[in-house]
């Protein structure tokens, strides 16, 4: 199964590729000053001209970690699949909607996400979790707050624009969750205030003024391979749906290198000793719990020095060696594209006011006719690419049994 990707899901953010210089109108500092001027204007006096050299502002509301989204179908055929889009609204509309809730939109409510020079647009995010009245207001316009995991599954990974919007949503969720977690200074306990258009925070205590930056939580994720390069070690957690297997993973501890974390986690979870560790790729992962705003998954191939498995039941439900042939068969029958299309259709229904509140979990193990004996996370996860890269690596580099660490398009 060949899946071509320019970048992992949540990577390749098109509005973060380059931060403008401070004097540029699209830079965080310049845009923030223009934002304050816009917010001071009377919303009923819409004829007032914008500040000189002021860019266009677009705002993405979030509610309880869920971005605002819409959905559309571009074709006219009955079998055309809908595609979701981020629910950007103008600054004026954002002010209006919040004003109807009795809330004054301030510059400190908005978080700078990035800009597009070619369109002269600056993008912002705002958390409206406390404003429940917004749900029916925006729903009347066929907008809906959709869980980021659902959007992740519904994203067509062959569509670079859709993948870019997913990356923007992931970045925004991570920043907003971090803002919610860092409301008080960890040093003195006083309130913190946003700085640099929400890109950092600072303690309000004049005798402290501690600077606080967004946190990133690094996680190693590894496909453990036997000495003959014929089998891969895959694990199951108790929260997994039946027959789903994936790579081992774990958080990096202070004072530990990435390679050391791979070896330690593999031994702790499965009792397998690891020797050589080879880097594959990394992936932002902003869909974890809100207490961990943004994980960075760092992927590796790890080569086992021992084969006997001793599972730590507190960490894993099970771990087993799987042959390359069995892994390849499982990849071949899993209908990832079908799951993506099904979830995209459900998002479309949600945005139209249908099936709100329905659980949108997608099952990737449905084969036409029968269920596959095992399956793996879909193409949105780095685990999928570690597994598929190894499974489809038929011709190894001369004199080496290591899979190439540069392959991302399998």
TrEMBL record:
Source lineage: Eukaryota, Viridiplantae, Streptophyta, Embryophyta, Tracheophyta
Superkingdom, taxonomy of origin: Eukaryota
Designated name of the protein: NAD(+) diphosphatase
Entry's Gene Ontology molecular function annotations: metal ion binding; NADH pyrophosphatase activity
InterPro entries (UniProt xref): NAD-cap_RNA_hydrolase_NudC, NADH_PPase-like_N, NudC-like_C, Nudix_hydrolase, NUDIX_hydrolase-like_dom_sf, NUDIX_hydrolase_CS, NUDIX_hydrolase_dom, Znr_NADH_PPase
Nudix hydrolase domain boundaries: 214-344
Documented EC number(s): 3.6.1.22
Transmembrane annotation, as ranges: none
Coiled-coil positions: none
Cofactor: Mg(2+); Zn(2+)
GO terms (BP aspect): NAD+ catabolic process; NADP+ catabolic process
Annotated family: Belongs to the Nudix hydrolase family. NudC subfamily.
A GO cellular component entry from the record: peroxisome
Pfam families attached to this UniProt entry: NUDIX (PF00293), NUDIX-like (PF09296), Zn_ribbon_NUD (PF09297)
Gene source species: Gossypium australe
Keywords (A to Z) from UniProt: Hydrolase, Magnesium, Metal-binding, NAD
Reactions listed under catalytic activity: a 5'-end NAD(+)-phospho-ribonucleoside in mRNA + H2O = a 5'-end phospho-adenosine-phospho-ribonucleoside in mRNA + beta-nicotinamide D-ribonucleotide + 2 H(+)
PANTHER family on file: NAD-CAPPED RNA HYDROLASE NUDT12 (PTHR42904:SF6), NUDIX HYDROLASE, NUDC SUBFAMILY (PTHR42904)
